[in-house]
Amino acid sequence: MASADRQSPPALRRGRILVPALLLSIFCLLGVFWSLRAGMSYTFYYQAKYGKLTENRPTNGPAREQALEKIFNLCERAHGLYPKNFHLCIFAAETAYYERFNDDGTENETRLALARTWCDRGLALNPYKSQLRLLDVRLVGRDDPARAVSLWSTFLDWQFWEPFNHRIMVELLARSGRYAEALSQLKWVEGSKYYREARQSIAEALEEDEKRTQEFLQSSGS
After folding, report:
1. What is the pLDDT of residues 77-117, one digit of tens each?
2. Is 118 within a domain?
3. Does the residue 111 lie in any domain?
4. Residue 73: inside a domain, yes or no?
5. What is the pTM of this model?
6. Beta-carbon contacts of residue 181 (< 8 Å; ≥ 6 apart)
């Protein structure tokens, strides 16, 4: 027993050294593992955003569809490896939304759903990013213009002094049929480079309303 007592202090000292060293080694290995995953993720992201698929992407036909499919596959691979990159979500969501039209001018519902998915992913990571908030209201406004106005109004309270945000509010109000409010909102865009666009958005909304009214009257008359 006396011999064991004399040997235990060095063993305990070795244990006190080895256990932290082992834990430190494990943490280092985990750090290397996640760094490699993040690095691979960013490689796929840059390939999708800045690579030949995007730079030389065809504008129509099967080749365009194949290129877009490869881009979104790269985005999914990047997200699977490192799901914290909201810039990736912005790129994928905007690409899906602005490439939503088929060659015949109809909208691709699958791509719109993809835009919704990536937008939601991005908002979960960074709910204050203006690109994501704008895309969110554009997607919502397709089915619920009033809710889109409400969502953008909340964002506008936070980013009030940016004229572009008021230019979007003018458009959303006009598309909701709230033309008096849209005209009132114009005062916050006056003197900025967005003023002409804001006025044009009201004119376009009025034109669309008139077109729908004419179509309704024609269908009723027949």
Report:
1. 999 999 999 999 999 999 999 999 999 999 999 999 999 99
2. yes
3. yes
4. yes
5. 0.81
6. 173
Q: State the angle between helix axes of 163-175 and 145-158 in degrees (0 to 180), rounded to the nearest 10.
A: 160
Contact 115, 139 (CB under 8 A): yes
Collapsed DSSP state (helix, strand, coil) of residue 107 = strand
Q: What is the pLDDT of residue 54?
A: 75
12 by Cβ neighbours in 10 Å (0-12 / 13-18 / 19+) ranks as exposed
Residue 16 in domain = no
How far is the C-alpha of 219 from the C-alpha of 221, rounded, in Å? 5
**Are both 47 and 113 inside the same structural domain?**
yes
- CA nearest 130: which of 78, 184, 177, 166? 166
| Whether residue 40 sits in one domain with residue 117 | yes
Q: Identify the residue with better confidence: 217 or 67.
A: 67
* Helices marked H in the chain: 2-50, 52-55, 61-81, 86-98, 109-125, 130-141, 145-158, 163-175, 179-185, 195-221
C-beta neighbour count of 88 within 10 angstroms: 27
Domain holding 191, by residue range, is 144-222
